[in-house]
Amino acid sequence: MIELINLTKFFGTNCAVNNVDLRIEDGDFFALLGPNGAGKSTILGMISGLITPSKGYIKINGTKLDLHRKKSSFSIGVLFENPSFYEYLSGRDNITMLAKLKDCNNKKEIEQLIDTISLSEYADILVNKYSLGMKQRLALACALLNNPDILILDEPTNGLDPEGIHAILNLLTHYIKKGNKTIIISSHQVHDMEAICNKIAIINNGNILIDGMLSDLLNDHSSSYLLTTNNPKECEMFLKNQSWMKNFQFINHKRGLKDFYIESIKKGKQ
After folding, report:
1. CATH number of the domain at 2-219, please?
2. Which of 65, 74, 61 is nearest to 43 (CA)?
3. Domain regions of the chain by residue span
4. What is the residue-level pLDDT of the chain in tens, covering all 270 positions?
């Protein structure tokens, strides 16, 4: 289980992630959805141990990540957006080099990975000859080394054509069925994630707007709005006293204006 508790990250004076609380259970296929620049990659970087939180902390199976980062990292596989490789080595050589760094020298496992990602025919071709889809599958193979319990994927289908997207998502669906694996994936493509994930969170400007089981959210009878005002106190007083108000939270402050995220219950559903 992964717990994010009051997780906050500042870059200078810019708050990229603001007091995020999330709980991801073992076996979840969890999607973090939001526009570019919303804070998705920063959250994934903190879960993977590559970015240090400014405030708050992360617990994996009850253990604080910042206190046992090296121990925790062995159970985590990571694929970040725009992965880089040794372009003048083959796909097989790239995987083999990384496997040695991860103390994974099982040649049979490497060959199985290459076969799983459907790169057997191209494994000995230089990576600089690979298409974007082939590079994404190679990056996924690298993330899957050592059969991690937690797989963190940052926009793994970005820039792919429909066939490439289907191939990646199909691989992930089969992987999570292998055992009690947890996948955390970020995307701005809601439709693709709806087909494979059981739990989602929507983030904007570093704030979690909504999270929960996808089935529950799809059956929810509420509408969501973004309200911008230059008189936040009066606006807040008015909205909090309305019977149709379900959720109301401040999410952004810019140029003298404040943004509020609002969920209202549709008429006839109170």
Report:
1. 3.40.50.300
2. 65
3. 2-219, 223-265
4. 899 999 999 999 999 999 999 999 988 999 998 888 889 999 999 998 889 999 999 988 888 876 555 555 547 889 987 888 999 999 999 999 988 888 877 788 888 888 888 888 999 999 999 988 889 889 988 998 888 889 999 988 877 788 878 888 888 888 887 777 899 999 877 777 777 888 888 888 888 888 877 666 656 545 555 556 666 666 666 666 665 555 555 555 554 545 554 444 444 343
